[in-house]
Amino acid sequence: MHYPAPGERLTSRFLLFTAALLLFSGSSLVPGALEDERLFTTEAPQSCHVVHGGAMKDSTSLNRTVMARELRKADYKGRANTWHKPCQDTILVVNLQKSQYGDVHYINLGVWVRLLGENEAPKEYQCHIRQRATSLRTEKAKALEQALNFVDTAMSPEEREALIAEFMRTEAIPFLESIATMEGIRTAVETQQLRGGMVPERLRDLLVSKP
C-alpha cells in the first residue's frame, strides 16, 4: 500500500481547499490572478503640480495656461503651444517647448518678416528672427530659467506661475513689440539686442537695401 508523503498530503489538501473556494464563490482562478497582478502594476507617473483651487495640472499645461492668459491680453491668438500676432511688417510668434530629456521647458520667441515671404501662421523654427526668452538681455532671465525647470522642486507652483506671468508681461511681449516693425528690427540689430538669437543673412541684406 502507498502512503502519501507529507508534501503530497499538503498538496492534496491545498487543491481540495482551492476547489471548495471556487465552488463557493462561483469564480475562476484566472480573473483573481489578474486582479492581483493589477494591484502590483503601476504606470509611469506624469509630472503633476497643484494649481489654484487644488486642481492638478501637468507642467506643460500649467505653463500654457499662464502664458495664454498674458498673451491674450496682448492680442495674440494661440493654437496648441504656439501663439501668433499679425502686424503690418511682421508676424510675432511665441512657442512653448518641452525638452525630450526631462521636465524642462523653453519659451521661444520668433518674428516672421512679411517682405521675405507669405505665411500667416509660421512655426517658430521658420521665423526670420528666433530668440529664446532666457537669452534676452534682462536680469530676470535666470529666474525664468529656474521657473521653467520643473526638475528643480525648490520653487512652488504659485511662485512659478507668478514669475512666468511677470516675465511674459514685462519682458517677452515688450521685446517682440519692439521688433514688430522693420525700423524696430534695424535698431535691435544695430544695438545688438538680438545677441544670442538667430538673424539670417538675407534679413540683414534686406535691412541694408531698405533704409
Describe the fold and architecture.
The protein is α+β, with helices and mostly antiparallel strands. It has one domain. Helix content is 44%, strand content 17%. It contains 7 helices and 7 strands. A hairpin with a 3-residue loop joins strand 4 (82-86) and strand 5 (90-98). Mean pLDDT is 80; it is low at 22-56.
Spatial gap, N to C terminus: 113 Å
Low-confidence stretches: 22-56
The mean pLDDT is: 80
- Side by side, the strands of the main sheet go 3-4-5-6-7
Return the string of H and E elements: HHEEHEEEEEHHHH
Please state roughly what percent of the residues sit in beta strands, choosing from under 5%, 5-15%, 15-25%, 25-35%, 35-45% or over 45%.
15-25%
Largest sheet: 5 strands, antiparallel
Q: What Rg, in angstroms, do the CA atoms define? A: 30 Å
Q: In which range does the helix fraction lie?
A: 40-55%
Shape, please?
A: globular
Give the secondary structure arrangement, pairings included.
Layout: H1 6-25, H2 29-39, E1 48-50, E2 56-58, H3 59-73, E3 77-79, E4 82-86, E5 90-98, E6 105-113, E7 129-132, H4 141-147, H5 157-178, H6 182-190, H7 201-209
Antiparallel strand pairs: 1-2, 3-4, 4-5, 5-6, 6-7
